Amino acid sequence: MADQFVSVREAAQTLGVSERKIMDLVGSGGLQAYRIAGQFLRLKRSEVVAIKNSGNIEQETVQLAYTQPERIKDFFYFNDFYIASLVAIVVLLYIIFYL
Questions:
Q1: pTM over 0.85
Q2: pLDDT tens per residue across span 26-81
Q3: What share of the chain is helix, strand, coil (3-state, %, to 5)?
């Protein structure tokens, strides 16, 4: 019985589309969604498989480029502690040796 429902993520993986596309299908009435315990959005596995077998859904293979500004932003985001530590060490060394 618990097998008959799938999550939005599982449905997206089955159909080869994004979770956003699944939510758009639910919004447009292409897929019926159910709330389990008023909290979790689930879809009937049989409906997802039927849509997959009908061939009415196009798989999404678009991958967005990882641009240079995004790389720089991610570098500072993931290494901010080390950068701040390096600045603090340099300032302390300056104070120790030059003041």
A1: no
A2: 888 888 888 877 777 888 889 988 888 887 777 776 566 788 999 999 899 889 99
A3: 65, 10, 25
The owner of tokens 């019985």 is 1
**Residue 5: enclosing H or E segment and its boundaries?**
strand 5-7
The number of helix segments (H) and strand segments (E) in the chain equals 4, 3
Q: Which two tokens stand for residue 13?
A: 């993986």
CA pseudo-torsion sign 24, 27, 31, 32:
positive
**Count of beta carbons in the 10 Å neighbourhood of residue 12:** 21
What is the DSSP secondary-structure string of 47-67?
HHHHHHHHT-SPPP-------
